[in-house]
Design brief:
mainly alpha; 5 helices; about 80% helix
Length: about 110
């Protein structure tokens, strides 16, 4: 694939992404939605994040893995506890990643 094709591919993806999202944002920006809609929209980011994270934590290889040798699960539970207690995103990410790496190293040593 040459450079022009790659550029056109990326530009096309950007255009499609923009074309599907801008009308909704432009229309929604002119509305004054009722408070219950704004309240409901606050739950969208956690719901989407959960939908992305939970399957990768519980099904790392396509099958349910709820055992101590699942480093994704161990690190995910630890990260959730850290996030709950500290309310610090950077600390949660750093300690969660460290737990994941250390748990995988420990499992590899066993």
């Amino acid at each position: 694939m040459d450079s022009l094709s790659e550029f056109l591919l990326v530009a096309g993806m950007a255009l499609v992404t923009f074309a599907t999202r801008y009308p909704v944002l432009a229309f929604f920006g002119k509305l004054n939605p009722p408070p219950y809609v704004l309240q409901a929209l606050k739950f969208v980011p956690p719901a989407v994040l959960s939908a992305l994270i939970v399957p990768s934590v519980l099904l790392p290889e396509g099958e349910l893995a709820v055992q101590p040798n699942n480093a994704f699960l161990v690190a995910g539970v630890l990260a959730a506890l850290i996030a709950w207690r500290s309310k610090n995103l950077l600390l949660t990410i750093l300690l969660g990643m460290a737990a994941f790496v250390l748990w995988r190293a420990l499992l590899g040593a066993l």
